[in-house]
Amino acid sequence: MDRWRGLKDLVEDAVDHGSRRVERLQKDAAKLPFDLLEQIPPIKAPVRGIRLIHDTTLSGVHGAIRLVNRAVGGAVDVVLFLVEQKARPGEAPAGSAGATPDAPSGSSDDKVI
């Protein structure tokens, strides 16, 4: 399971860092055209507004990508935990109150009266 967790962490980090890098590149690519257009007095104010919308939208999209990436990473962590627990049927899940690792499922010790 450690290898799967390591792979998950690598993919999650790659998506996060990749998204941040692409966001920066996209903003840098748009900078020169916006700078040039802002030098034209009649359209300076609208161009500033458009740049703000562009940059905000870009940050929002990449923020959503990173948020989904973290959510998927968390879901994969849960799945790996459950697979790991299923692979060890004789052990109680961590945090189980009153369960003993050697008690089989459904024993009289587990019944609630």
TrEMBL record:
Segments for region (Disordered): 89-113
Top-level taxonomic group: Bacteria
Descriptive protein name: Uncharacterized protein
Organism: Sorangium cellulosum (strain So ce56)
